[in-house]
Amino acid sequence: MEFNCNWNRKYTTIAMYSFIVIASSILFFLIMSGLDNFTRVLGGYFSALDPFIYGFVIAYLVNFFLNFFKEQLGKIPSLKKIRESRFHILSLLLAYLVSGFLVYLFLAFIFPQLFASITGLVRNIPDYVRSSTEYIKNLSDDILLLPPEVVDFINVRLDELVVFINNIAQDLVPIALSFLRHTALSVWNLFLGIIISIYMLAEKERFISMAKKVNYSVFNVKLADKILELLGRTQRIFSRFLGGKILDSLIIGLLTFIILTIVDMPYTLLVTFIVTVTNIVPFFGPFIGAIPSVIIIFFESPIMAFWFLIIIFFLQQLDGNVIGPKILGDSLGISSFWILFAIILGGKFFGFIGLIIGVPLFVLIYSIVKEIVEVRLKAKGLPVDTKDYLHK
After folding, report:
1. CA-closest candidate to residue 131, choices 301, 257, 287
2. What does the pLDDT read at residue 262?
3. What are the φ/ψ torsions at residue 139 (nearest 5 degrees)?
4. Of the ranges 160-169, 272-281, 292-301, which is most confident?
5. Residues in Cβ contact with 240 at an 8 Å cutoff, skipping those fewer than 6 apart
6. Which residues contact 365 (CB under 8 A, 6 or more apart)?
7. SS3 71
8. Domain map of the chain by residue range?
9. What is the distance between the alpha carbons of residues 129 and 295, in angstroms, rounded to a whole number?
10. Residue 331 above 60 pLDDT?
11. Which residues, 6+ apart, have CB-to-CB distance to 307 below 8 Å?
12. Measured between alpha carbons, how far is 41 from 46 in angstroms, rounded to an integer?
């Protein structure tokens, strides 16, 4: 009887595993066969989390101001008598006031000029294409360096480009309506995100305590301590890198605006905005921002586009050799090869966001792997310095 029970239990277990494997295979096949529909449905469900994602990002950025005010206000003797909860609320209020003031400055002074530059550029695109077509025709007639077949081919393609741009101009109304709809949805999510971020930062200490409580309840003390150490390391790496890159980009943006204003560069504010935003991307940032900027300026003045390239090259050297190292210091701790590797890999998997977070994410993984390797080497009584293995 005992033999039969063991036999039944054994084959019941096999049957259950077989069922799980077959069901998983069928589910995987159904998902892959309708991958587009699956991702669309899944994206619809995940879109409900957009306000929380917005809120987390806003809270993460405002937290820089929150920590700053808590540190500075803590130095005032009269405020040391205030209860910790009220002190936190005061710091939080100041952090959001400063953040709101910066947003107001952008919307009041920068955004209108930025919008005017973009609309002016879009309005002038047909004229730019037409003048470029006439320039190439005149150039081919004057110099006669190109065969007639090549000239005819170029002229036909340029005429098709003009027609294509005119068709796009006619379709601007539905495109604009779709853009407004998505913009309105984004604004609503942003509004909800601001409210969520306030709750996140107001209850920050409580949320952290709850997370630690769950951590220690699930894992043993040693592993829970290690998890908290890794989370702290992650926070330090990301905050130091992102905070440093934002400050670095703002400095480069200010220098770009001053220099371009002095030389009377076309679309100064628009180009400055592009350079400032793309400079957050390590290594490739100046090149990513320079390409569209040069194209924009070239249609207005080819000579100024050439001077812009020289200015960007000068600023890139200044940033890479002076400003960037002064702000970031040795916070990365990895070679240029690994930075390039992290940027390419991050951009491949996560797009533009991956270009930004790829480097700090790789630094975190690199530090974990380095720690594991060194612990295993020490356990074997071997040296941990990489130079010791050069001629081994």
Report:
1. 301
2. 92
3. -65, -40
4. 272-281
5. 328, 331
6. none
7. helix
8. 2-37, 49-202, 220-380
9. 12
10. no
11. 263, 265
12. 9
Encoded amino acid at 2, one letter:
E
Give the C-alpha separation, 60 to 1, whole Å: 64
**Single-letter residue type at 358:** G
Which one-letter DSSP state was computed for residue 330? T
Long-range contacts of 11-18 (CB under 8 A, 24+ apart): none
> At a CB cut-off of 8 Å and minimum separation 6, what does 112 contact?
none
**Residue written as tokens 């065969």?**
147
Question: In the numeric block, which tokens belong to residue 318?
Answer: 């200044």
Q: Are 201 and 59 in contact (CB under 8 A)?
A: yes
pLDDT at 273 over 60: yes
**CA torsion sign, 145 to 147 to 152 to 158?**
negative
Query: For residues 233 and 369, what is the distance between their CA atoms, to the nearest angstrom?
Result: 13
The single residue listed with the structure tokens 């970031």 is 328
CA distances, 219 to each of 205, 216, 258, 365 (Å): 21, 5, 55, 22
User: Any idea what DSSP says for residue 349?
Assistant: H
Count of CB atoms within 10 A of residue 226's CB? 12
- Is the predicted pLDDT of residue 246 greater than 60, yes or no? yes
| Contact between residue 241 and residue 359 where contact means Cβ atoms under 8 Å apart | yes
Half-sphere exposure of 82 (CA within 13 A, CB side): 16
Quick one: DSSP state of residue 120?
A: H
Structure tokens at 317: 């050297």
Distance separating alpha carbons of residues 325 and 236, to the nearest angstrom = 18
Whole-structure pTM value: 0.68
In Å, how far are 305, 325, 386 from 295, measured between CA atoms? 8, 30, 46
Q: Is 112 exposed, middle or buried (0-12, 13-18, 19+ CB in 10 A)?
A: exposed
**122-145 tens-digit pLDDT:** 677 666 666 666 666 665 555 455
CA 308 to CA 118: how far, in whole Å?
Answer: 19
The amino acid sitting at 39 is T
